[in-house]
From TrEMBL:
EC top class, as a word: hydrolase
Pfam families tied to this protein: Glyco_hydro_8
Recorded family membership: Belongs to the glycosyl hydrolase 8 (cellulase D) family.
Protein name in UniProt: cellulase
Catalytic reaction list: Endohydrolysis of (1->4)-beta-D-glucosidic linkages in cellulose, lichenin and cereal beta-D-glucans
UniProt keyword annotations, A-Z: Carbohydrate metabolism, Cellulose degradation, Glycosidase, Hydrolase, Polysaccharide degradation, Signal
GO biological process assignments: cellulose catabolic process
Organism: Piscinibacter terrae
Signal peptide per UniProt: 1-21
Molecular function per GO: cellulase activity
InterPro entries: 6-hairpin_glycosidase_sf, 6hp_glycosidase-like_sf, Glyco_hydro_8
Protein EC: 3.2.1.4
Origin: domain of life: Bacteria
Length: 538
């Protein structure tokens, strides 16, 4: 729903960088995808009201102002993290938020601008909260990428002390970069922050520190792989299996921790960082402008976007999609592991073991101390269906990604289908939706691992999870025009009702474990915005 400005006025506002909101919620875009169309969501007004109500709950539960002198203008998204504080942080300092949380908050506040109005009908802006999150982004920068670096520390400390920082995680910074570019479209860049310049600076840092370049064998072609963060470049990127204060991990599965894989780390990758739509937005916005290695090996925004997309699609198609050489014939669901690592064939020496830049495989479980079965479709890769759908919204002609998303959609359709019914679907805890799956679609019910922080063996159980249901609902929209369209529409309508009523909230479970409501409720809200067509891109 555009504001009532003429084209000339919009052009003048864009040039002047004024704070005239241009994409007020609900800004509906026709992506030629399915949308919920039953009685509860049959009109834009109904979809708007449901999402606005959910957002207000989300905001009340998770968007916080830190306590302390001079911090009233800051905001942070409150939520637990699976990572651990840095060793140099003061004893007792906890992680209360992170770059992932900040990126989610920035995306949501810029998308939801216009959802609140005062008694006179005037918009109560989300901009103060957005700017509060920007202030937090600026306060906590990665300590690894050098002076003036724009990458954010993945962790935010409970004392809100900017000296207590960490390294970066690509997904958080990519979301922040996109949100800043959206903010320029929404409010202009003539206020407290130059959103446009900040977006470009952030993206330039991502292109420099979070993309690993490699050459295709026997070809002059290059690709860019999203690495695990600026930390993966440290110490030459070596993966040392028996590093006492680091990996302590059997990467190649030979039963020993004796090898060093020199330079391997920058070639490991996490599919939840494979955010093709983000790269596509910057590519089309800045096209031929240089963004990486501008003095030695210039790459434009368009080249970076294309080389990253080709790499992501190639990794999935060649190593995780049934039908490719060496890929199990049962990997037909579009699922991918939480982490992906280079293959480690025999060869080399203990101090310089062999590994491949081009050939990859799913990571072993508990990779880099993650408390999940990281060889499976679990808590990280659960976000892949959402990111694939956003890529299709940015580029509707990306048939490779569409086919991938449709595979996941069909898997979700099967999981939600009520057995022995014709067209009934159940996304709730009484249905069959789980919270971790093997790549062949088999549900995983438990996982046992050694928790280094607790110094003991822990067993996790996986039941139904709201965010897994929400993420499987997202790609259903891609089945428009497919033989399953009627079934997908019915499942999508059921999914809308499920998400509308699913809100975990903050806090802990009776056993003392974290509910992780921030993560579950954030993904559910993004799913609702996406299937309703109420997301937009610069």
């Amino acid at each position: 729903m555009k504001t009532a400005l003429t084209a000339a006025a919009l052009a003048c506002a864009a040039i002047a960088g004024t704070a005239q909101a241009d994409f007020l919620f609900p800004h509906e875009t026709n992506y030629d995808l399915l949308k919920p169309n039953h009685t509860a969501a049959s009109t834009l007004a109904k979809r708007r009201d449901a999402i606005a109500a959910y957002y207000r709950k989300w905001k009340a539960a998770y968007l916080k102002t830190p306590t302390g002198a001079g911090l009233s203008g800051f905001r942070y998204v409150d939520g637990p993290s699976t990572g651990q504080p840095e060793d140099f942080w003061p004893m007792g300092t906890k992680i209360i938020s992170g770059s992932e949380h900040t990126g989610y908050g920035m995306l949501l506040t810029v998308l939801m601008e216009g959802q609140a109005k005062d008694a006179s009908g005037k918009v109560v802006s989300e901009k103060p909260d957005f700017d509060g999150l920007v202030a937090t982004y600026q306060r906590f920068k990665s300590y690894l990428c050098g002076s003036g670096c724009k990458l954010m520390s993945w962790a935010i400390p409970s004392d809100f002390n900017p000296k207590n920082i960490s390294d970066n995680a690509p997904d958080g910074d990519l979301d922040i970069a996109l949100a800043l570019l959206m903010a320029h479209n929404q409010w202009g860049s003539a206020g407290t922050y130059n959103y446009l310049q900040m977006a470009k600076d952030e993206y330039k840092a991502i292109a420099k520190y979070n993309l690993t370049e490699h050459q295709i064998p026997n070809k002059a072609e290059f690709r860019l792989r999203v690495n695990l963060g600026d930390w993966s470049l440290q110490s030459g990127g070596d993966f040392i299996e028996n590093k006492a204060d680091g990996e302590d991990f059997d990467l190649d599965g030979d039963g020993a921790k004796t090898k060093t894989f020199k330079g391997l780390y920058p070639y490991a990758t996490r599919p939840s960082d494979w955010m093709m739509g983000h790269f596509g937005v910057f590519a089309r916005r800045f096209n031929s402008e240089c963004v990486r290695d501008c003095t030695t090996h210039p790459m434009s925004y368009n080249e970076v976007g294309n080389l990253t997309r080709f790499e992501i699609q190639g990794l999935y198609n060649d190593f995780f999609k049934a039908g490719s050489p060496g890929v199990p014939t049962t990997w037909t669901k579009g699922l991918i592991s939480d982490f992906v690592v280079p293959q480690t064939p025999p060869g080399g020496t203990l101090s310089n073991a062999a590994w491949s830049k081009e050939n990859v495989r799913r990571a072993p479980d508990a990779f880099i101390d993650e408390p999940f079965p990281t060889s499976k479709w679990s808590e990280n890769a659960v976000r892949v269906p959402w990111r694939l759908t956003w890529e299709l919204m940015v580029d509707k002609y990306d048939d490779t990604t569409r086919e991938w998303a449709q595979r996941i959609a069909r898997f979700g359709l099967d999981q939600a289908h009520v057995p022995e019914s014709i067209n009934e679907y159940n996304w709730s805890p009484t249905g069959r939706i789980g919270s971790t799956y093997d790549l062949n679609g088999t549900r995983i019910n438990s996982f046992t691992y050694f928790d280094k922080a607790l110094n003991k063996t822990v067993t996790k159980t996986f039941g139904h999870a709201q965010h897994f249901a929400s993420m499987l609902i997202v790609p259903l929209v891609t089945l428009k025009g497919q033989p399953e369209e009627q079934a997908a529409q019915a499942a999508l309508n059921k999914g809308w009702d499920y998400m509308n009523g699913a809100f975990t909230g903050p806090g802990q479970n009776p056993d003392g474990s974290e509910k992780d409501g921030y993560f579950k409720d954030s993904l559910t809200l993004f799913s609702m915005l996406t299937v309703a067509g109420l997301v937009w891109f610069p």
